[in-house]
Amino acid sequence: MTSLDKPTEDTDQTPPGESGEGDARAVTEAALFEAFGGVRGMVETVVPGLLFVAIFTVNKDLHLSAIAALAVSLVLVVVRLAMKDTVKHAFSGVFGVVFGVVFAMFTGNAKDFYLPGMLYTLGLALAYIVTTLLGVPLIGVVLGPVFKENLSWRTRNPGRKKAYAKSSWAWGLILLAKCAILFPLYWWSDTTRLGWVLVALKIPPFLLAVWLTWVFLAKAPAPIDVFAEMEAEEQAEKAEKERKAALAAESGEPEAMPGRHRRQA
């Protein structure tokens, strides 16, 4: 076991309430905030759909509702770019709105604005469950790079793998429950009711899944920083090369002296 594996053991041995546990919780909070975009990311996912259903509720105009939702999504991206901030969450919102607008315009049914997002939610729920059953929980694949551990948890950190599995089950089941509410509304309810229910279900299930992920990971062993390991290996290789070069230089000096004596003779 390398020295870089030791934090995993130390985290297990840290008594509850001491600084080790507090540091783990703080790191987990920061990583989740980065991965899921925080409050701003949630706003960017909610506003376009909220604007669509609000406008459609008032005037039943599919084209105006779709254009307004797409326009506000683009504005959110432009604001991100102007602030030189990461645009991945805003861009994901734009893509979702674009697909929704294309579907709705193609079919002429305003409900279809929500269908791509609902299908994505269903696919994501199944992905969380299937990958967990296969031993590679999706939430670990997503958060591994954020924690600088990549996929090291699969073989080197079983406690952390277990936490990722629990988190992925939570995400999968929560999203399936959300789909169980939305799809019957899509089939049997009107566009306005579906839209308002969908907007209402945007944030609460997400917050519940993030909170459960935080609970599971905060109690898990610390991540193994594979980036630090790679840097340490590079430093060790560099030091070894320097040592060999120094030895070669030292061993070469005695060999050069006899040659000079022979030339002088």
TrEMBL record:
Residue segments, region Disordered: 1-24, 235-265
Keyword Transmembrane: yes
Comp. bias intervals (Basic and acidic residues): 235-245
Membrane-crossing segments per the record: 62-83, 90-107, 119-147, 168-188, 194-217
Keyword Cytoplasm: no
UniProt keyword terms in alphabetical order: Membrane, Transmembrane, Transmembrane helix
A Pfam family that the UniProt record links to this protein: DUF3159
Superkingdom of the source species: Bacteria
Protein name, entry field: DUF3159 domain-containing protein
Organism for this UniProt entry: Streptomyces graminearus
Lineage of the organism: Bacteria, Bacillati, Actinomycetota, Actinomycetes, Kitasatosporales
